[in-house]
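Researcher: We're reviewing a set of sequences before deciding which ones to prioritize for further study. For each one, I'd like a predicted 3D structure that I can look through quickly. This is GntR family transcriptional regulator. If possible, include the structure in token form so it fits the rest of the review sheet.
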Amino acid sequence: MARTGSLYFQVMEQIRQNIITGKYPVNSKLPNEFELSEQFNVSRVTLRKAIKGLTDDGLVEKIQGVGTFVRKPRKVKRIISSSHAESFSQTALNEGFKASAKVIESKEIKTPNKLKELFKTSKTLFIERVHLVDEEPIMLERNYFPLPRFAELEKADLSKSLYEALKKRYQIKKLTADDMIISVSLANQDEAKQLKKSIGFPLLLVQVSVKDENEQIVHAGKQYIVSDRYEFHL
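Model: Here's the predicted structure for GntR family transcriptional regulator, in token form for your review sheet.
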């Protein structure tokens, strides 16, 4: 994992920018180690760490005996032209991906201060999941559900669609995303570990609260999304 501010992290970011801007086009071969070391004025050890970080992030691929090539993963596309809350699993399936999720943590906690006015409950169910596309982690999701209404949610199969589980278990007919905020965040140590990216990797941060057809709060939370595998369409 690269540390923000370290020399090889700086080299990583410069190469990343060259990829994003098209200086190194998709499927093109990067200059060799000697040329890149000279270009960035760093040792080969530092350069190799930078290339490893980019390889871990899926931006480049090293082919033994051939070289290092720029790669561009397919993206999951999400349409946000309406307030309808979309299931990540269903969106990924619609795009032709194999989607799954893994529960990292599920526990009852005191309602965070910032959610007390919204939830109007003293206890909250916190669920943290990682979403995978074709076995690759693409989104870290941290959601809060008001208790006691969603006390039984822990028993549901959350390796699949959360929204389908909510509709079936609680007879919810419609889920609406309310007050969605999208910004950019840099992966910290925990987020980088869960998403198998380098520390400082750019993530899309989505903050949202979701209500049912009766305007009752269902959950609020944050989604940390791998930026090069996901895109929003308005």
